[in-house]
Automatic annotation (TrEMBL):
Domain NodB homology: 36-222
CDD domains tied to this protein: CE4_NodB_like_3
Gene3D superfamilies: Glycoside hydrolase/deacetylase
Name this polypeptide is given: Polysaccharide deacetylase family protein
Domain of life: Bacteria
Pfam family, one: Polysacc_deac_1
Organism: Turicibacter bilis
């Protein structure tokens, strides 16, 4: 029995407790906008198929967002990173290759941050925000966040848009769940990060339907610098 309890205890200390603590008790983590407004955030990109379409939609509605990018994807599509910056969006870090921190060591975590930030520096991007894949952290994640002067940004609205669901269903979830200090976590990449193929097209379609209705409800779309 002790041979089972020991690895379980190590996993709880290494992965479960850090994730739980930083989600629920870290007062420095950004978990809502702290004022009246909706903040759109997108994880897992950039993606050659979907990100351009999403940027077109945001530009049409004059909405600024935060893109939490996977560094290896950013390296593949530097023109999309440049467009994000040129159009006034914030770029945050979402890991090197979208691996779950719960399953990795000090040395991989160190490499994850260092190589990611090296790539972003090569793209002339200074990241101030970090969002771990799936929101999972390990015992060393926060140490490297502080070392690289990154602030943890989580979310309080998620509509499971990584699944291939109808845009009308996703729209209804957005309308129902969004409130006056929402940080919405959506996704602009699919199969490379574990989502269903084509799912971001439904996300984009849902946003096209939901944005006017959310504005009618009196909800404003804001950027992070106006929300902090």
């Amino acid at each position: 029995m002790i041979f089972l309890l020991l690895p379980l205890s190590v996993f709880i200390i290494h992965s479960i407790l850090p994730t739980y603590y930083h989600k629920h008790f870290n007062s420095n983590a950004i978990t809502d906008t702290q004022q009246q407004g909706i903040l759109l955030t997108f994880d897992d990109g950039p993606d050659e198929i979907y990100t351009e379409k999403l940027l077109d939609l945001l530009n049409k509605h004059d909405i600024k967002a935060i893109f939490f990018v996977v560094a290896k994807n950013a390296k593949k599509y530097p023109h999309l990173i440049k467009r994000m910056m040129d159009e006034g969006h914030e770029i945050g870090l979402h890991s090197l290759e979208h691996k779950n921190a719960c399953l990795h060591s000090y040395f991989y975590t160190k490499k994850d941050f260092q190589q990611s930030l090296d790539i972003m520096n090569q793209l002339n991007v200074t990241c101030h925000l970090y969002r771990p894949p799936w929101g999972h952290m390990n015992l060393f994640t926060y140490h490297f966040m502080k070392k690289h002067q990154l602030k943890l940004c989580l979310w309080n609205v998620m509509i499971q848009d990584w699944k291939n669901q109808s845009k009308s269903l996703l729209k209804e979830r957005l309308i129902k769940q969004c409130h006056s200090n929402s940080i919405i976590c959506l996704h602009d990449s699919s199969h490379d990060c574990g989502a269903d193929y084509g799912a971001p097209l439904n996300t984009i379609g849902a946003l096209e339907l939901a944005i006017p209705q959310l504005k009618i409800k009196g909800l404003k779309f804001i950027s992070l610098e106006r929300s902090q």
